[in-house]
Known about the structure:
Elements: E1 9-10, E2 13-14, E3 21-22, E4 26-29, E5 41-42, E6 46-53, E7 56-60, E8 63-67, E9 71-75, E10 80-86, E11 91-97, H1 99-105, H2 112-120, E12 123-125, H3 128-146, H4 153-176, H5 185-199, H6 207-213, H7 218-229, H8 233-249, H9 256-262, H10 268-279, H11 283-295
Antiparallel strand pairs: 1-2, 3-4, 4-11, 5-10, 6-9, 6-11, 7-8, 7-10, 9-12
Helix pairs in contact: 3-4, 5-7, 6-7
Amino acid sequence: MAFDKNIFDINGKDILSMATFADEDVIAFDNIRDICLNEKVKIENFIIALCNKGRGALTINGVDYNVGVGDFVICRPNHIIENMMESMDFECSCLCVSTEFMRNVMLMANSWDFNLVIEKNPVIHLDREESDVINAYEAILRNTLRGAPRRHHKEVVESLMRAAACYLTDMLMQHMEMKAHNFYKSETAFNEFLDLLSATYPRRRKVDYYAEKLNLSNRRLASICVRVSGKTALQLITEYAIRDIKRELLKPENTIKQVAFNMGFENVSSLGRYFRNFTHVSPKKFRATYAQNMCDGDEAMPEE
């Protein structure tokens, strides 16, 4: 089976029983609300969805998003989804696609640009023409998946997915102002680093942990990161770690001591030194600033 086994079980619910179709690479749902994402879920594979009716809201990696007609949602492995709410008339078709299959049919899914951009922009608004084309591909694929198995069933599905992936790639590149490029070995290694960094929680904050896991020297990993992203491995690790700490600090039920424990620090002092070094404010002041912003009607996260 190409799917990670965890995709079949979300917080004790067997999502296969809710699917309109499921095989080793693709699980289809008539409506994403069937997956019950109101609880916190760590996505193990790709989720692709398009809203065709109604309105909804959800939290992806700690950031709140509103979803309406024409909004396209794409989540990559290790994204965390929670707090999903929707109107009574909400309709949002959804495909869960295994990581292996997604990477086989969509070269862009291996790209650093793609992973970085969808992490920052998992919800994209499509125009009517784009929505119609995506729905057309989805309808053909769904009917093919539901049909009786034939000799070349898998090849037909792969061909349809590849055709849809080509359109999707061009569409996303246009929306995200990305440039097509060749894929070098360093980008593959960088993507493996990004996947490992995304999957490690709480984040390990030392470069040598990731370098060892990837069978690279610290210097080689640093060189790859700078070449592909313009940032060092330590800078990227720190960005992820600081974002996680901020997210934990903004949960009112957490004490700063609990945040330190959750994030893998020995004590509150260690957390404070690390956080101040990169944000120039203490965890306590950061939390107080956010609380004041909320009182003033500004829900934006305080800047570093």
